[in-house]
Specification:
mainly beta, 135 residues, 5-stranded antiparallel sheet
Length: 135
Amino acid sequence: MTYAKPLPVVDAETRPFWDACRDGKLKIQACRNCGHKRFPPTFYCPKCNSPEHDWIESKGHGRVFSWIVVRHPVPRDVYAADVPYVVALIELDEGVRIASNIVGIEPEKVAANMPVRVIFKSVTPEITLPIFEPA
């Protein structure tokens, strides 16, 4: 069966992130010059403009910063079977925020500051999505 939902665009900036997800690791960038941790990936540090960075592995733990419960999917033909579902902004323990889904809990039970952890969902041979569940 093929994956019918939109897939992320993998480019030079994001390839290391997606490769790590495929290996079951959540990685973020850390500036070699000032130490600033960042996500999403960029070629230059937003704090000091340095192009030098490392990919560091996140522990994959964080807290719900904000969320919505999707009940009226757009486009309907792609997401109708999934409703209701949660789209959340997760603040990782490393200090960066990542948008993802929260699974394994009734949408009405999701709460601000709720602890979550990353799990990985392989959707194509190239793409594995990081999603979150209650910790």
